[in-house]
From TrEMBL:
<dbReference type="InterPro" id="IPR000362">
    <property type="entry name" value="Fumarate_lyase_fam"/>
</dbReference>
<dbReference type="InterPro" id="IPR008948">
    <property type="entry name" value="L-Aspartase-like"/>
</dbReference>
<feature type="domain" description="Adenylosuccinate lyase PurB C-terminal">
    <location>
        <begin position="334"/>
        <end position="454"/>
    </location>
</feature>
<dbReference type="Pfam" id="PF00206">
    <property type="entry name" value="Lyase_1"/>
</dbReference>
<feature type="domain" description="Fumarate lyase N-terminal">
    <location>
        <begin position="94"/>
        <end position="313"/>
    </location>
</feature>
<protein>
    <submittedName>
        <fullName>Adenylosuccinate lyase</fullName>
        <ecNumber>4.3.2.2</ecNumber>
    </submittedName>
</protein>
<dbReference type="InterPro" id="IPR020557">
    <property type="entry name" value="Fumarate_lyase_CS"/>
</dbReference>
<dbReference type="Pfam" id="PF08328">
    <property type="entry name" value="ASL_C"/>
</dbReference>
<dbReference type="InterPro" id="IPR047136">
    <property type="entry name" value="PurB_bact"/>
</dbReference>
<dbReference type="InterPro" id="IPR013539">
    <property type="entry name" value="PurB_C"/>
</dbReference>
<dbReference type="InterPro" id="IPR024083">
    <property type="entry name" value="Fumarase/histidase_N"/>
</dbReference>
<keyword id="KW-0456">Lyase</keyword>
<dbReference type="InterPro" id="IPR022761">
    <property type="entry name" value="Fumarate_lyase_N"/>
</dbReference>
<comment type="function">
    <text>Catalyzes two reactions in de novo purine nucleotide biosynthesis. Catalyzes the breakdown of 5-aminoimidazole- (N-succinylocarboxamide) ribotide (SAICAR or 2-[5-amino-1-(5-phospho-beta-D-ribosyl)imidazole-4-carboxamido]succinate) to 5-aminoimidazole-4-carboxamide ribotide (AICAR or 5-amino-1-(5-phospho-beta-D-ribosyl)imidazole-4-carboxamide) and fumarate, and of adenylosuccinate (ADS or N(6)-(1,2-dicarboxyethyl)-AMP) to adenosine monophosphate (AMP) and fumarate.</text>
</comment>
<comment type="pathway">
    <text>Purine metabolism; IMP biosynthesis via de novo pathway; 5-amino-1-(5-phospho-D-ribosyl)imidazole-4-carboxamide from 5-amino-1-(5-phospho-D-ribosyl)imidazole-4-carboxylate: step 2/2.</text>
</comment>
<comment type="pathway">
    <text>Purine metabolism; AMP biosynthesis via de novo pathway; AMP from IMP: step 2/2.</text>
</comment>
<keyword id="KW-0658">Purine biosynthesis</keyword>
Amino acid sequence: MTTSSDQPLGDQPLSPLDGRYRAAVSGLGEYLSEAGLNRARVEVEVEWLIALTDRSLFGTTPLGETDKDRLRVLYLDFGPDEIAWLAEREAVTRHDVKAVEYLVRDRLAQMGLDGIAELTHFACTSEDINSTAYALTVKRAVEDVWLPKLRAVIAALRALAEQHRDAAMLARTHGQPATPTTMGKELAVFAWRLERVAAQVEASDFLAKFSGATGTWSAHLAAEPDVAWPIVSQEFIESLDLGFNPLTTQIESHDWQVELYDRIRHAGGILHNLATDVWTYISIGYFTQIPVAGATGSSTMPHKINPIRFENAEANLEISSGLLATLSQTLVTSRLQRDLTDSTTQRNIGVALGHSLLALDNLQRGLGEISLAEDVLQGDLDGNWEVLGEAIQTAVRAEIVEGRSQISDPYALLKELTRGRRVGAAELAEFVRGLDIGDAAKERLLVLTPATYTGLASELVDVLDEELPAHPED
């Protein structure tokens, strides 16, 4: 396609995460971008070199704190110069990790530390560096960016649950009027569900391997057979606050990633359910949307406030779920000792988490832009007195057991009165007065209304303050 413009569009962001929605997801770019991955690779290379010299291996002596600080600046101040240097070198090497090794060697030379240059990437396969770098970046992205946003959504739900704990509303099972509940209790259900998954994500493993080309430490032993290399590797990985996988092929098996992405996808499913439920509550008038100054709901209908936050969240959660499922499905398998399908797949971790983060951002905003229409809830309750049929037939059953009633089939009796038809307060009261039950039961039923028939709904909100039961894996 040709245009009259002199400005090509090919250099514009292809993904909306890097364009329209960049501000909402930029925190993930610190870790899960190509630059973030390369910074972590430099970190692993530098820390491995320091770890080897700290042990005085191969005649080296431990570096002084000044030299260690100078080396750590390579990743602490990693920026545009390093990004450009790596891009230029990778164009020649056609290998991203080798380019990182050359960067570290180049900087060692500039620092006058050529004597230890051969310890850069020592006995490592690329996947030693990559598995560690991915564990670092994913861990930091989840703990520093994704989990806090999930926690913010949970906090918003908890606040709304507490605020509306006594707001009676008609439940809708199968979309039909059902035993009343409260809006607070229904929102607390989502908070409780998300709390469980958040705790599971927080307890996730982040594993790395550091055992050479096929996971056997063969090169290490060839260079120095008298060193307990598995211990050296484990202590190194654990010094980075990661878990160590001692039994691998060339790659770390990625099972921890599969577990993590499945948990995040599970959270996404709950959030999707939340988005569609709140959308429905808005649709039936239970929630009104608070107008945002200057915003346009429709290009032609000026009265509209569309529930775009929840629709946007719904769509992004579906995209995220699909990508996370692909990550889990692909990463669980590697042909024999190594293939490269994982390499391409893992480059999309940031995209999968990005769409999830964008959804969380929209949900957090959306939950702050709704107001409960209690008059609508009350009107709905007043129009559905037949929902008390459950209470009446259950009370009658108890009276039969107590010997205070001779009614033979209370369920059928109430079914005949209420199924498929509206029953008003007066008609229901007249029906109760004519029942063959004790006076105390009649009094309880006669004062009952749809708005007061909410059981323990309000008190159940307090469950959110109780400690979660231990996860089976704990």
